[in-house]
Write a structure and sequence with these properties.
Order of helices and strands: HHHHHH
Structural class: mainly alpha
Helix content: over 70%
Low-confidence stretches: 1-6
Mean pLDDT: 80
Largest sheet: none
Number of strands: 0
Shape: elongated
Number of domains: 1
Amino acid sequence: MDTPGTGGHPQADLLAIAHRGVRLQTAAERAIAGCLGPDPGASARECGRLLARYYRLRGELAALPLMGPLLRFRGELDTVLLCHQFVLHEAALSGCRMRRWADTHHGSSLVLGLPGERLRDLRDEILDCVSPAEEAARDDVRQG
């Protein structure tokens, strides 16, 4: 599959970005939780590294040549990725605030709360929109 933003298949590129964001969530949740643990410095550095990866995903997303209904996905996906960046930033600054933040987000068991759930939902919605001509790219994403 082409690298996102290289003129390949915009729908598949959008799906790849969403999928990579979802795959980062486990590491992000672990790093965020670690900010409450015995070595918050190491966890804060990991939060910073992951924050940069979400930033790069947002840059790739902004560069995609999307049209029509895919534009809605770009806006919503960007918002969710930005929420992930915010939570990682806040965790790196103050683990105590993160515990209060997680507790206020509808009892979600995930540290990333509703934005984490919405990112997975968006990935699945984008997957449903991928055209039959992009089946090979979609299969690559599922396996990756």
